[in-house]
Design a protein that fits this description.
The complex is a heterodimer of chains A (about 160) and B (about 325). With about 160 residues, chain A is α+β, with helices and mostly antiparallel strands. In chain A, about 20% of the residues lie in helices and about 10% in strands. Chain B has helices spanning about 10, 30-40, 55-60, 80-95, 115-120, 120-130, 180-185, 200-215, 235-245, 275-280, 290-315; strands at about 45-50, 70, 105-115, 135-140, 190-195, 220-225, 250-255, 260-265. The chains are: A alpha+beta (about 160), B alpha/beta (about 325).
C-alpha cells in the first residue's frame, strides 16, 4: 500500500503537526502500512475530546477505528463461558480477574459477557464462588438456551 | 488524587476500564489483570510507558491500541528513562505555565517485564530511581523472556526449565538463584517498594494507590503467572498465583523508605513449595527421584527468606 497524498504531505512536518493530525486524518480506508508510518505519529484512542474518559462507560465513549475495542478476538475461542443470571450473587470476582475486560458490569451488577473480546480462557469460571457456578464453559457452538437448560443442580459438600 | 474506593469489590467494579479488550496477550495472562487493576484504582490522568515485552507487543499491534491513556514505547530497556523524561517535561511546562490544564492530576507509570527490569533495563531503572523522578515502576514478573520463546532471565528461579537453561539428563534446569530485585530497589532508598500479587486484589490495589500517591520513585514487583512458559492451563492463572503466595515462593510485603518492612499477607495455612511446583510443567523434572534434593533446597531457601522477612519486620530497621 502506498502513502496517500495527504500522507506524503505529512512527511517532513514537525512532531506537533503530526500530533494534531494523527494517522486518523488519512482515513481508515487509506491506512498506510506499518512500516510506512513516520516517527512521532500519534494514534488516537478516541474521536474528539477524551479529557473525562475515566468517567464514561464504554457505551458512552466515541472510540476511534484505532482502538482495539473496535476489533475482535472471538475467533480465538474453542470454548465459551455462559452466564446464568439466576445463580449469580454479583460478587464481581469475574470482573476483577478477567484478563480481557470482557465482563460487562454496571452499577455493581454483573450483566453478561462481551463475546467480541473474550478469548475463552476460563478464569471467570474458576473464580466463581457460587454453588452451582453461575459461569460455566461450553463448546463454542452451543446455543444459549441449550446451555442454560442443562445447568447443574446444587452439589452438597462431601462429608469427610 | 482522586482515589477510587476499595471498600469492597462491588464498589471497585463501578470503575470504567481504561485498558481495552482485544489485545493479543495469551488467554489467561496475568499481565492484563495487573494493568487493568492499576488503571482502575485511580481516576487521575495517567501517562504510561512500557518496555518491550509481551505487554508492549500485544497491546499496540498496528493499527490498534488498547490504551485509553497517554502511552509511549521507545526501546527494550528504557521505560524508566522515557517516563522520567515525560515527568521532567511536565514539571518544566508547569513552571513555565504552558500546560493546557495545569491543575489536572497526572500520574506517571512505567511497566516492564522481568527481562527488561532485572536484566536489560536495570541500569536505566536504577538511574531514574536515583534521580528521584516522581513515577511508579511496575515490574510484571513472569520469570522468563516469554515474548521471545521462554529464555532464562535473572528472575528465573532455581530448578525451572527454560529454552536456554534446559532440564535433561545432565541438568535440572536453571542453577543460579533468582535476583532479589525488591531488596535492590529498597537499597536505592526509594520511598515505596513492594512485592504484590494479583490474586489478592485488595492488597494489590492498596499498594498501587500508595505508590501513586507517594512523591518520588516507587517500585512494585508483581507476580504474573505465565500460562505458556510456566505450562499450566489458562484457567488456572489465579489458582497458581494462590499457590505462589501461600507457599511463600512470592511473599507479599512492602518496604517504606528503604527500611520499614511490612508483611502485607500472612497465609493461614502455609503449603509446602512442592504443591506450587507440581502445578506447573516447567518443574516437572524435579519430581524424578534424582532431583528430589532440588525441591528440598528450594524449600529451605523459601523458609530462610520468610524467617528473614519476619525478623526484619520485627526489628524495624
Amino acid at each position: 500500500m502506498k502513502l496517500s497524498k495527504e500522507g506524503e504531505k505529512m512527511q517532513g512536518q514537525d512532531l506537533c503537526a503530526a500530533e494534531n493530525r494523527g494517522v486518523r486524518e488519512l482515513g481508515a480506508e487509506k491506512l498506510v502500512g506499518w512500516d510506512e508510518v513516520q516517527q512521532g505519529v500519534v494514534i488516537n484512542s478516541f474521536e474528539g475530546d477524551a479529557t473525562d474518559i475515566v468517567h464514561k462507560k464504554a457505551e458512552e465513549r466515541v472510540y476511534s477505528d484505532f482502538n482495539s475495542y473496535t476489533a475482535t478476538v472471538a475467533s480465538w475461542r474453542v470454548q465459551k463461558p455462559v452466564f446464568n443470571m439466576d445463580v449469580c450473587i454479583d460478587c464481581q470476582n469475574c470482573w476483577v480477574w478477567c484478563p480481557d475486560s470482557s465482563i460487562i458490569s454496571r452499577d455493581k451488577q454483573m450483566l453478561g459477557i462481551d463475546y467480541d473480546h473474550c478469548k475463552g480462557c476460563g478464569v471467570c469460571v474458576e473464580v466463581c464462588p457460587t454453588n452451582p457456578k453461575s459461569l460455566l464453559m461450553f463448546a463454542e457452538y452451543t446455543e444459549l438456551e441449550t446451555a442454560l437448560s442443562g445447568w447443574p443442580e446444587k452439589t452438597k459438600k462431601e462429608e469427610k | 488524587m482522586a482515589i477510587t474506593s476499595l471498600k469492597n469489590l462491588k464498589e471497585f467494579s463501578t470503575n470504567n476500564d481504561r485498558f481495552e479488550g482485544a489485545h493479543l496477550l495469551c488467554p489467561g495472562c496475568a499481565h492484563s489483570m495487573i494493568v487493568r487493576e492499576l488503571m482502575n484504582c485511580s481516576d487521575d490522568n495517567l501517562v504510561i510507558s512500557t518496555n518491550t515485552g509481551c505487554l508492549e507487543v500485544s497491546t499496540a499491534v498496528y493499527p490498534y491500541t488498547s490504551w485509553d491513556t497517554s502511552w509511549i514505547h521507545i526501546g527494550f530497556e528504557n521505560a524508566a528513562t522515557a517516563i522520567a523524561g515525560a515527568e521532567a517535561m511536565y514539571k518544566a511546562r508547569k513552571k513555565k505555565g504552558t500546560l493546557k490544564d495545569p491543575d489536572a492530576p497526572v500520574k506517571f507509570v512505567a511497566f516492564g517485564g522481568d527481562g527488561s527490569t532485572y536484566d536489560i533495563g536495570f541500569q536505566w531503572l536504577s538511574g531514574a530511581i536515583e534521580r528521584g523522578h516522581d513515577f511508579t515502576y511496575i515490574c510484571l514478573d513472569n520469570e522468563n523472556y516469554a515474548n521471545t520463546g521462554g529464555q532464562r532471565s535473572s528472575s528465573t528461579p532455581v530448578g525451572a526449565t527454560t529454552t536456554t537453561a534446559q532440564a535433561g539428563s545432565h541438568s535440572y534446569g536453571k542453577k543460579e538463584k533468582k535476583k532479589d530485585i525488591v531488596a535492590i530497589m529498597a537499597a536505592h532508598g526509594a520511598p515505596y517498594v513492594a512485592q504484590l500479587a494479583p490474586n489478592k486484589w485488595k492488597i494489590m490495589a492498596q499498594g498501587f494507590q500508595k505508590a501513586l500517591e507517594t512523591k518520588g520513585p516507587c517500585f512494585i514487583n508483581t507476580v504474573s503467572a505465565c500460562t505458556t512458559e510456566w505450562r499450566f492451563d489458562p484457567k488456572d492463572t489465579i489458582h497458581v498465583t494462590d499457590l505462589a503466595t501461600d507457599s511463600l515462593m512470592f511473599p507479599i510485603y512492602e518496604i517504606i523508605d528503604g527500611h520499614e518492612l511490612n508483611i502485607l499477607y500472612r497465609p493461614k495455612n502455609v503449603i509446602p513449595v512442592e504443591e506450587y511446583l507440581a502445578a506447573q510443567g516447567r518443574y516437572k523434572h524435579l519430581f524424578k527421584p534424582e532431583n528430589k534434593h532440588v525441591i528440598e533446597a528450594i524449600q529451605k531457601e523459601v523458609d530462610q527468606k520468610w524467617e528473614m522477612l519476619q525478623r526484619r519486620e520485627e526489628a524495624r530497621i
